[in-house]
Amino acid sequence: MASRSEPPASLDYFPTPPWATRALVECVLGDDPALQLDGKVVWEPAAGEGHMAQVLAEYAGLVVHSDVHDYGIGSQIGSFVGEGPDVIGRGARCESVAADWIITNPPFNLALDFAERALIDAPNVALLVRTSWLEGGERYTRLFSKTPPNIIAQFSERVPMTKGRWNPDASTATAYAWLVWSRRIGVNEGTIFSWIPPGQRQRLTKPNDVERFA
Prior knowledge:
The protein is α/β, with parallel strands linked by helices. It has 6 helices and 10 strands.
């Protein structure tokens, strides 16, 4: 039930509900001055149609966004992972701006590669992943055993995502969590496991979200 059955060539595009991004800022990053987005530059490297990038702009000083596919929102076009001339420039640079944060909902099958690059390119990283992504020997060996997240924030309620568009009335059986790394906290300082309380879907959905995103 936690899997997405998509063809191999699929871009695995599942837009993030706006409230789930707001939950990262308001429930996970909270009042910790080391983690605040205010005045910071955030890069969203799997921006799609901008569901997450536009919400991050409600909090951050500047949001730059890119994607491997042109969804028509003015993103810089290029791959965040892999090799070749279509890969977005290295050194935490997107549109020539150094990023304080990389925040994204990565494609599931490329999420490990996204995590590895993001941790090199930015001092702070937040990934929205299925909770089942915490399992697996390869992810443990390549990522979690070396650079465990500082925070794992599990959603207490489901975060419904549908392929290709945001459906505010959707439901799901899939569980999601935010994973956060910050060099200001320090690696290998232990992982804090917390819960994002139920009720955030209702609390953090704004009246104009349907008009903006659906």
